[in-house]
Amino acid sequence: MQGNPAGVDIWGMEPKVDQSEYGVFKARRLHSGEEIGPDDWALAHTVNKGETIVDELLQIDAFDGKKKVPF
To answer: Of 7, 15, 28, 64, which has the fewest beta carbons less than 10 angstroms from its beta carbon?
Structure first.
């Protein structure tokens, strides 16, 4: 495995996608239920704007069909 083992644990597989394909990731903000759009992922904010996002709680739809709240 070349990628981040924590990413595999979280997503149920190792997705290798370009930022233009972040739409494959599905999640909602835990407390508000607001959907996370392709440009609203923490990594996109870091890469595109130099912003660091911390303590963001999400419920994700993992690729193995499970809903998860990774910590």
So the answer is: 64
